[in-house]
TrEMBL record:
It holds the Pfam family LysE. InterPro entries: LeuE-type. It comes from the Bacteria. It is a multi-pass membrane protein. The chain crosses the membrane at residues 6-28, 40-61, 126-144, 150-175, 187-208. GO terms for cellular component: plasma membrane. One of its GO terms (molecular function) is amino acid transmembrane transporter activity. Keywords: Cell membrane, Membrane, Transmembrane, Transmembrane helix. This is Lysine transporter LysE. It is found in: Cell membrane.
């Protein structure tokens, strides 16, 4: 079994990494300013992807992935392209809505689309960014037992997932209060523009790094 102290350090390092500004957090906050329900769906989508990365790290597959540069390069190129595609959609939507912002909170929710689509956006955003593989391998993998038992692996996986999900859930709860949503109602299109630009920049840099490594 893993020592409680080591588990606490692993969870702490994971929370520090999760709290760092990135596509997942930007998507979550952008969604939460319009709808708490959609934001929770996005959070679940993000952590569906995170569960995969956690499992790969715990069972040693992340180290194998890092040992094959071509695999990470391919993920960077494809993931970067996905982030750019998502970013340009947000950007175009924000530019379109500048002169026609949502009239009320109900309309703001409707413009997000379905709850299922919010889940899908969360999942795609997380899977598109392989940075988590590098971070988990560097910070967390060295603290894991060399050959963890299934019980140990499941305890670590559950601890990482639940702590990260709870952290993002707290962000959802604070950002999606009615007071915050009402104060940001008119700013919705500009939030979309800023989020879209952020996604496009991150995606471009990610894809460019992958292309440079492939050449």
């Amino acid at each position: 079994m893993i020592a409680p102290g080591d588990l606490a350090v692993i969870v702490g390092l994971n929370l520090v990494g999760a709290a760092a500004p990135g596509p997942d957090l930007v998507l979550l906050m952008r969604t939460a300013t319009r709808s708490r329900q959609h934001a929770w769906a996005a959070n679940l989508g993000i952590h569906t992807g995170a569960a995969l990365w956690f499992a790969l790290t715990i069972f040693g597959a992340a180290a194998l992935l890092n040992a094959v540069p071509q695999a990470v390069t391919a993920i960077q190129i494809v993931g970067g392209a996905v982030l750019v595609w998502m970013g340009q959609r947000n950007l175009r939507g924000g530019l379109r809505d500048r002169h026609n912002p949502p009239a009320d909170l109900d309309e703001a929710v409707q413009r997000l689309g379905s709850v299922r689509s919010a889940y899908t956006r969360g999942l795609m955003t997380n899977l598109a960014n392989p940075k988590i593989v590098v971070a988990l391998t560097a910070m967390i993998a060295p603290l894991l037992p060399p050959n963890p038992s299934l019980a140990t692996a499941l305890i670590v996986l559950a601890s990482l997932w639940l702590s990260s999900f709870a952290l993002f859930g707290a962000v959802v709860h604070v950002t999606s209060t009615e007071r915050v949503r009402r104060s940001l109602l008119r700013a919705g299109p500009y939030i979309d523009i800023a989020a879209g630009a952020f996604f496009m920049v991150v995606g471009t840099l990610l894809a460019a790094r992958g292309l440079c490594e492939a050449i």
